[in-house]
Amino acid sequence: MSDFVVVVLASIAAGLLSLSVALFLLGSERFSSKLIKYGTPFAAGVLLMIAYRDLLPEAIAEGGSEVLDATLVAIIVFFLIEKGFKSFHHHHEEDKNKQDDTTQGWLFVIGDIFHNLIDGISLGFHGFSMSFIDFLCFSLIFIDFR
């Protein structure tokens, strides 16, 4: 079998594993709340650590101090965007009587499937160029992040 077929099959298997875990979490509210409480900050911390320990020093070496200015501006802009979206999020009593629209939920699921497939394929191809331990660590990070 070619490497491409192996990567696609592994991505599909990982997607099915992710779907089965999501279905399990739908049935177990206690475990789901613990995973949200501890898993999400862990994944965010790992991604920030990778950015600050690996990507940022490399960018500074190539781009100089302008990279730090751009990083600071990006953090401030995205912080303000998040605060702006939270202030426009309102719940009204009249919205409770409306029937739920499930179309957006299915669009989210389909988009997430394609996102996971692309993540899996890119991780799979990148895995051929790194050691097994690094590949295993990146795989666990992606599983935790999902």
What report would you give on this structure?
The protein is an all-alpha fold and 146 residues long. It has one domain (3-87, 103-145). Helix content is 83%, strand content 0%. The chain has five helices and no strands. Helix 1 crosses helix 4 (103-127) and helix 4 packs antiparallel against helix 5. The longest helix is centred in the first third of the chain and has 35 residues, at 29-63. It is extended. The mean pLDDT is 75.
Topology:
Elements: H1 3-27, H2 29-63, H3 66-87, H4 103-127, H5 132-145
How many separate structural domains? 1
Distance between the termini: 28 Å
- Number of DSSP E strands: 0
- Fraction in beta strands: under 5%
Q: Key terms for this structure?
A:
5 helices; 0% strand; extended; 146 residues; mainly alpha
In short:
By secondary structure, the protein is an all-alpha fold. The protein is built from 5 helices and no strands.
